[in-house]
């Protein structure tokens, strides 16, 4: 059933207080709930009270201590409806029975490695008890948990522990009380054999907060980075937004079976263990960075999500877009701002742009959904974060802060919509943002065309912009967007020309001299076409457009290759230096793809080689910046730019360029490896991470030469590595080339790490995303490996999801890749619909390929939708993919 934003109705009943009592057992769990129900219209007319409930057995139901008679309620597969409840505040008591040990969906209450845990967002609470499972029902909760003391010595829930004690038969109980009102999706419970790393944080107001990170005993040593990250996040939020923690206790629990990354339950965050546990030996720089970002993210939700929450699930980006933006800023401040920005923009382009151009394209605030779980998307999260970033670009740092302050002042304790955030930003700064809200309602990536001209007589420079938003499913015609364009103008020496004023629609706009960034002006595009004219420009400038990627759009400008080489060498905006290199690389790849199709010999433009060379040898540049600048755009990014996506030609051209660069710059790459080794103990900081990234990027280039000398070098790197970053990257470099070395070393690595769950996940993905020919057979074999488990989402994402990342193997001409994915989706759907639906997304863009691939992929989608008993999750993705 499809649900629409326009159909939102206020609830007829509010819940003010919820007391839960869990009796956890080995074959069943009993849940008693006692709810104070307040009719919105106290004393008015009676409305039915509809409670959600799935996969749970109703034991009893009472109103004001009286058993409700059978004729006074209705029970179906998904609801419990009370026909005419009292019209004044009453107490509702419901008992249910559930079977967490059989719950493979990992939603609601389930078991992971012998421990109980919960995941309630978005709609998992209804798998625990009958409830109005919607975020605008906010209540204060208590939670009593009763369980066997030896099996479940630790019993956790939200808020403060107010009582605990022993019971008969080796059982014990605890009572938790959460003083803050919350929607049920923030409820959490954990029970099991866990130990904690303890620390404290003193808030700026002097409150001492106990911090605890819970894991099985053997993993405690791997939690120090997570604790460091948590403390850094708490401090950052105080310094940056004036936001302090609001309870005396903050818990984080790591579990190995988790559908997503992590969950911000009030004072009891539950994490996928891959985003908590790290040691230098078992985790790499990427893992350390993700942990920092996600620990920050979930912590920041305490204000942006929990204190101010969403009115309904269509508003998801209100909390997720904002919180992603906050975690991005946090990571920037903890490391390198430019590098973080480049990584985030690349990710957006690689994932969100293609989502936005496909059958699942939806606005940051979707208009409808069948299954909310399908809308935890890169559009809601990442494009949503870009929308928040645009407010900051438009208002400046101080203006943005004023908007945030007003947002909390107005809405603390409320469940609100995206308009409320917009209004706070607007009102705090007294600005007119005209059509900015269309960022929430229009899907599709806008394309902005820019043409420039210089008039030497009048010393004026004109930039003409036109914008177009492509049609998307259900939205054939689009309005113009409000697009902030941060521009700089470079003179022939490469310096920024100060911009003091410009004409827009014949109106002179002066830039306040106080603004520190007079070298960058932020233009406001609001129409389909418009022109900006800059005066007193002494020579024809080179424009640096969309500095720091000021809007999530595609840009098509009339700049020449020479202009881009100039920007690459000179732009004061480091993001745009990287961008200029990427534009050149994309153009180069597309022209080589044309040559490849025409069977012309491939020749690499020497300007490109020398561009890469000068980056590689420029000791003034940040090393991580260099490694990002010398990396080629991804296959999926390039395929997106083709009329008919052709994975084979993209692969051929990418491989050709890599190898050619390795041949021509072998000396430089070797020097890079040599100069960036270190014998010091692993340290996760920007300097060391940058050094390792650059070294290992060079190593991957060298490996493409596939000669004996390089083989020896990389083997040596592998064997001498003292941390997972160096070891794994050497392994990746070796595993590019098929052969005995590859097999031996993969085996060696497995033997070494078979008891480390998180390393095994890496080992699986390393093999699944490989481009070596015919890899589908290896991946199928790995399904039967003892290291694999179809019920563990991380393993599925590594092996099956990872496979889809190899465009040559996933899109194999014979359809073997599609067939494999089709089979896996159906198997997974029976166990865990959310995981299955993430995997089926890989088939959604079938129309981008040639006819024979289209037919093969379509056949799999058809097979999937016509399967009996398919979940709504998979049905939504597969049917929308076929319909578009
Ligand atoms: N709110 C979580 C976050 O921090 C994501 C939870 C998503 N869960 C789900 N079952 N869809 O991003
Ligand atoms: Zn989040």
From TrEMBL:
Obligatory cofactor(s): Zn(2+)
InterPro entries listed in its UniProt record: Aminopeptidase_N-like_N (IPR045357), Aminopeptidase_N-like_N_sf (IPR042097), PepN_Ig-like_sf (IPR038438), Peptidase_M1 (IPR001930), Peptidase_M1_dom (IPR014782), Peptidase_M1_pepN (IPR012779), Peptidase_M1_pepN_C (IPR024601), Peptidase_M1_pepN_C_sf (IPR037144)
Domain Aminopeptidase N-like N-terminal: 63-186
GO terms of biological process kind: proteolysis
Entry EC number(s): 3.4.11.14
Domain Peptidase M1 alanyl aminopeptidase Ig-like fold: from-to ranges: 444-557
Residue ranges occupied by any Peptidase M1 membrane alanine aminopeptidase domain in the UniProt entry: 227-438
An example molecular function term from Gene Ontology annotations: alanyl aminopeptidase activity
Catalysed reactions listed for this entry: Release of an N-terminal amino acid, preferentially alanine, from a wide range of peptides, amides and arylamides
Highest taxon above the source species: Eukaryota
Pfam families: DUF3458, DUF3458_C, Peptidase_M1, Peptidase_M1_N
Domain Peptidase M1 alanyl aminopeptidase C-terminal: 561-883
Coiled-coil positions: none
Keywords: Aminopeptidase, Hydrolase, Metal-binding, Metalloprotease, Protease, Zinc
Similarity-based family: Belongs to the peptidase M1 family.
Descriptive protein name: Puromycin-sensitive aminopeptidase
């Amino acid at each position: 059933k499809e649900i629409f934003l326009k159909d939102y109705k206020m609830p007829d009943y509010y819940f003010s207080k919820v007391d839960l009592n869990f009796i956890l057992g080995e074959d069943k769990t009993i849940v008693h709930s006692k709810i104070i129900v307040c009719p919105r219209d106290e004393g008015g007319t009676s409305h039915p009270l509809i409670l959600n409930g799935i996969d749970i057995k109703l034991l009893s139901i009472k109103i004001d201590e009286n058993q409700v008679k059978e004729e006074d309620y209705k029970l179906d597969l998904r609801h419990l409806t009370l026909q005419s409840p009292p019209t004044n505040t009453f107490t509702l008591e419901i008992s249910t029975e559930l079977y967490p040990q059989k719950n493979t969906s990992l939603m609601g209450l389930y078991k992971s490695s012998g421990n109980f845990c919960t995941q309630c967002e978005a709609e998992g609470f209804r798998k625990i008890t009958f409830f109005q499972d919607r975020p605008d029902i906010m209540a204060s909760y208590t939670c009593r948990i009763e369980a066997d003391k030896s099996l479940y010595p630790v019993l956790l829930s939200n808020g403060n522990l107010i009582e605990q004690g022993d019971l008969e038969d080796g059982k014990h109980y605890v009572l938790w009380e959460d003083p803050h009102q919350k929607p049920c999706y923030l409820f959490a419970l954990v029970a099991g054999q866990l130990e904690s790393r303890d620390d404290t944080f003193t808030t700026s107001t002097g409150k001492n907060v106990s911090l605890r990170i819970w894991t099985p005993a053997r993993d405690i040593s791997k939690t120090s980075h997570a604790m460091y990250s948590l403390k850094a996040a708490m401090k950052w939020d105080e310094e940056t937004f004036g936001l302090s923690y609001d309870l005396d206790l903050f818990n984080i629990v790591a579990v190995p079976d988790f559908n997503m990354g992590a969950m911000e339950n009030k004072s009891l965050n539950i994490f996928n263990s891959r985003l908590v546990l790290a040691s230098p030996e078992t985790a790499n720089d990427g893992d350390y960075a993700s942990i920092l970002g996600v620990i920050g993210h979930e912590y920041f939700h305490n204000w942006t999500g929990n204190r101010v929450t969403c009115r309904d699930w269509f508003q998801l980006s209100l909390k997720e877009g904002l919180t992603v933006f906050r975690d991005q800023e946090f990571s920037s401040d903890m490391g390198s701002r430019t590098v973080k920005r480049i990584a985030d923009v690349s990710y957006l382009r690689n994932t969100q742009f293609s989502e936005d151009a496909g059958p699942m394209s939806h606005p940051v605030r979707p208009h409808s959904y069948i299954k909310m779980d399908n809308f935890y998307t890169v559009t809601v999260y990442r494009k949503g974060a870009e929308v928040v970033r645009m407010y900051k670009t438009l208002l400046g740092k101080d203006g943005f802060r004023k908007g945030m302050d007003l947002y909390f002042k107005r809405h603390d304790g409320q469940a609100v919509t995206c308009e409320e955030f917009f209004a706070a930003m607007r009102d705090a700064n007294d600005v007119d943002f005209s059509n900015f809200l269309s960022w929430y309602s229009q899907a599709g990536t806008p394309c902005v065309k820019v043409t420039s001209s210089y008039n030497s007589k009048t010393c004026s420079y004109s930039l003409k912009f036109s914008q177009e938003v492509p049609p998307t499913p259900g939205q054939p015609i689009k309005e113009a967007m409000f697009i902030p364009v941060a521009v700089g103008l470079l003179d022939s020496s490469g310096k920024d020309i100060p911009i003091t004023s410009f004409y827009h629609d014949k109106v002179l706009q002066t830039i306040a001299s106080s603004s520190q960034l007079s070298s960058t002006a932020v233009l406001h595009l609001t129409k389909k076409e418009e022109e900006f004219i800059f005066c007193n420009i002494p020579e024809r400038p080179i424009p640096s457009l969309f500095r720091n990627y000021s809007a999530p759009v595609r840009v098509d400008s009339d700049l020449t290759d020479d202009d881009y080489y100039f920007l690459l060498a000179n732009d004061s905006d480091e993001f745009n230096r990287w961008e200029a290199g990427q534009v050149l690389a994309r153009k180069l790849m597309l022209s080589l793809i044309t040559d490849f199709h025409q069977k012309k010999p491939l020749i690499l433009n020497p300007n490109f080689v020398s561009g890469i060379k000068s980056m590689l040898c420029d000791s003034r540049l940040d090393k991580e910046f260099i490694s990002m600048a010398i990396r080629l755009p991804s296959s999926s990014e390039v395929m997106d730019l083709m009329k008919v996506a052709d994975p084979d030609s993209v692969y051929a051209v990418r491989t050709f360029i890599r190898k050619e660069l390795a041949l021509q710059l072998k000396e430089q790459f070797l020097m890079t490896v040599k100069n960036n080794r270190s014998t010091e103990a692993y340290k996760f900081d920007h300097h060391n991470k940058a050094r390792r990234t650059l070294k290992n990027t060079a190593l991957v280039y060298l490996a493409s030469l596939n000669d004996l000398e390089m083989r020896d070098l990389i083997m040596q790197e592998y064997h001498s590595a003292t941390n997972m970053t160096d070891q794994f990257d050497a392994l990746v470099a070796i595993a590019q080339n098929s052969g005995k070395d590859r097999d031996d070393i993969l085996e060696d690595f497995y033997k070494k790490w078979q008891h480390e769950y998180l390393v095994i996940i890496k080992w699986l993905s390393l093999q699944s995303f490989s481009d070596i020919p015919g890899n589908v057979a290896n991946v199928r074999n790995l399904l039967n490996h003892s290291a694999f488990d179809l019920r563990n989402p991380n393993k599925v994402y590594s092996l099956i999801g990872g496979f889809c990342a190899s465009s040559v193997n996933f899109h194999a001409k014979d359809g073997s890749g599609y067939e494999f994915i089709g089979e896996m989706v159906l198997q997974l759907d029976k166990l865990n619909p959310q995981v299955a639906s993430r995997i089926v997304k890989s088939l959604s863009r079938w129309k981008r390929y040639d006819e024979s691939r289209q037919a093969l992929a379509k056949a799999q989608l058809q097979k999937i939708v016509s399967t009996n008993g398919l979940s709504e999750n998979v049905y939504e993705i597969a049917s929308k993919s076929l319909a578009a």
